[in-house]
């Protein structure tokens, strides 16, 4: 299985809403002492976790699918899981599904174009901006102070879900780990 976290490379984007996928991959690497693999042909940071792979595409969000397709093809991987931010879900929501549309998310659009739509999505809700025209600046902004208080707990919970998914079905992970709305204390 290839587990991909979507995000943008570089310190400028490190703590932005759009990088929640990178944050989960970083935590999975740390929790599981995943081994770094080197290959510039993948356009990403690739790690081995037992018989699975963890990937952070370094192509910037809009071209993520290029990196994913390269790893998938080279290692002949059938099952792909993509962890990404989702504007259509409230902050802290965690949902799972296979297939579907990209909903205007350029990272998903690129993935769909390069490997098809048949992959598992770990949808992490980041909420919406007040005005539709603010979407780009919203996803590229840092989480607010209140959200930051719960970020590590939410990321840890998402990691548990992904680790559970490695050994269980999508239906099982969905029924056990779905959060409709994160309860801010």
From TrEMBL:
Its main location: cytoplasm. It is found in: Cytoplasm. GO terms for molecular function: peptidyl-tRNA hydrolase activity; tRNA binding. It catalyses: an N-acyl-L-alpha-aminoacyl-tRNA + H2O = an N-acyl-L-amino acid + a tRNA + H(+). GO terms for cellular component: cytoplasm. TRNA binds at residues 13, 60, 62, 106. Belongs to the PTH family. This is Peptidyl-tRNA hydrolase. The keyword RNA-binding applies. Its EC number is 3.1.1.29. Hydrolyzes ribosome-free peptidyl-tRNAs (with 1 or more amino acids incorporated), which drop off the ribosome during protein synthesis, or as a result of ribosome stalling. Catalyzes the release of premature peptidyl moieties from peptidyl-tRNA molecules trapped in stalled 50S ribosomal subunits, and thus maintains levels of free tRNAs and 50S ribosomes. It is an enzyme of class 3 (hydrolase). Keywords: Cytoplasm, Hydrolase, RNA-binding, tRNA-binding. The lineage of its organism: Bacteria, Pseudomonadati, Campylobacterota, Epsilonproteobacteria, Campylobacterales. The record marks 8 as: Discriminates between blocked and unblocked aminoacyl-tRNA. It comes from Sulfurimonas xiamenensis. Monomer. The record marks 85 as: Stabilizes the basic form of H active site to accept a proton. CDD domains: PTH. The active site is at 18 (proton acceptor). InterPro entries: Pept_tRNA_hydro, Pept_tRNA_hydro_CS, Pept_tRNA_hydro_sf. GO terms for biological process: protein quality control for misfolded or incompletely synthesized proteins; rescue of stalled ribosome.
């Amino acid at each position: 299985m290839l587990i991909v976290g979507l995000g943008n490379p570089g310190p400028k984007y490190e703590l932005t809403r759009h990088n929640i996928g990178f944050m989960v991959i970083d935590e999975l690497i740390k929790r599981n002492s995943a081994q770094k693999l080197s290959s510039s042909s993948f356009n990403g940071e690739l790690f081995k976790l037992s018989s699975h792979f963890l990937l952070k595409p370094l192509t910037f969000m809009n071209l993520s699918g290029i990196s994913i397709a390269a790893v998938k093809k080279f290692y002949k991987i059938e099952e792909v899981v993509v962890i990404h931010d989702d504007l259509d879900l409230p902050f802290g929501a965690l949902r799972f599904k296979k297939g579907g549309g990209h909903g205007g998310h350029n990272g998903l659009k690129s993935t769909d174009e390069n490997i098809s739509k048949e992959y598992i999505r770990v949808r992490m809700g980041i909420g919406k901006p007040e005005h539709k025209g603010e979407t780009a600046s919203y996803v590229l902004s840092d989480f607010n102070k209140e959200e930051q208080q719960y970020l590590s707990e939410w990321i840890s919970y998402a990691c548990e879900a992904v680790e559970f998914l490695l050994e269980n079905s999508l239906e099982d992970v969905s029924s056990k780990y779905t959060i409709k709305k994160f309860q801010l204390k």
